[in-house]
Amino acid sequence: MTPVALVTGGARGLGACIARHLASEGYRVAVADRDLAQAKATAQAIGPQAAGIALDVSSEDAMEEALDTVVRQFGLPWLLVNNAAIMKAEKVLDIGIDTFDAIMAVNLRGTFLGSQRFARRLRAANKGGRIVNIGSLAGENGGTATGAHYAASKGGVHTLTKVFARDLAPHGITVNAIAPGPLDLPSVAETIGEENARRAMASLPTGEPGRPETVARMVVELARPDAGAITGSIIDINSGLYMR
Ligand SMILES: NC(=O)c1ccc[n+]([C@@H]2O[C@H](COP(=O)([O-])OP(=O)(O)OC[C@H]3O[C@@H](n4cnc5c(N)ncnc54)[C@H](O)[C@@H]3O)[C@@H](O)[C@H]2O)c1
To answer: Pfam families attached here (predicted)?
Structure first.
């Protein structure tokens, strides 16, 4: 049977790369994003095995509706990739509470909601499944000094990963996170500015940023049916910036 995957924030950037890669590996892919037009365009570029759907990951109702839509259209997913996130570079003293709440709502609450609502359906079906969360190097080492809200949200994602993994292990559901350092994507310069991005990339120990394709391939590996022993792991892809 063709496996089904749901990728949140799949309209652009890393999520789009993961969706493309999953499709090329034989998955039917739901490209879920709050930017429906872009999600549809991305899905169309992938082909008939992909569909763009509307989703705001911070909303309970939207999450349930998106899961209903995917189940109707493709069947129950085997894999959920919690990739949607927002980022902002601000000094701690400048962070407004609205921005703090908005980042937590998408990055942390969105990952919790997606994992919980998806896992409830997997449990009911009793066939196992896979959850891969996209965390961040910032969730481990605090990142730069300009993203306390973002770093804290990603630290939370890593912790959720471990607790969900422990709880769901007896049910054949694995939960892992990938913690990328700077990736070769436009969002880096959009968040911290061209000059800072250029400097950050130039100072990487390996001399090169992570490739979105490398992250996408890791998602596929973690999602393999025979990878049931990998759970609760935070996989680093960070150009040598941080070693546990
Ligand atoms: N770019 C990097 O260098 C980098 C490094 C480490 C981790 N990450 C992580 O990788 C993931 C993808 O990052 P990216 O660089 O592709 O970002 P991006 O901003 O290019 O893409 C994020 C996508 O998420 C969508 N989105 C935002 N809020 C949403 C919501 N409430 N509901 C549904 N969709 C929503 C956006 O519309 C967009 O399509 C994020 O989790 C990010 O934290 C990125």
So the answer is: adh_short_C2
The atom number, within ligand 1, closest to the CA of 107 reads: 41
- Kindly state the average pLDDT of the residues 47-76: 98
What are the angstrom distances between the C-alpha of 170 and each of 15, 54, 221? 29, 32, 20
Instruction: Determine the distance separating the centroid of ligand 1 and the alpha carbon of 170, expressed in angstroms.
Output: 31
Q: How many domains does the chain have?
A: 1
Quick one: the chain helix, strand, coil %, rounded to 5?
Answer: 50, 15, 30
Q: Is 150 a catalytic residue?
A: yes
pLDDT grade for 128, boundaries at 50, 70 and 90: very high
Average pLDDT over residues 99-111: 98
Residue 175 sits in a domain whose CATH number is 3.40.50.720
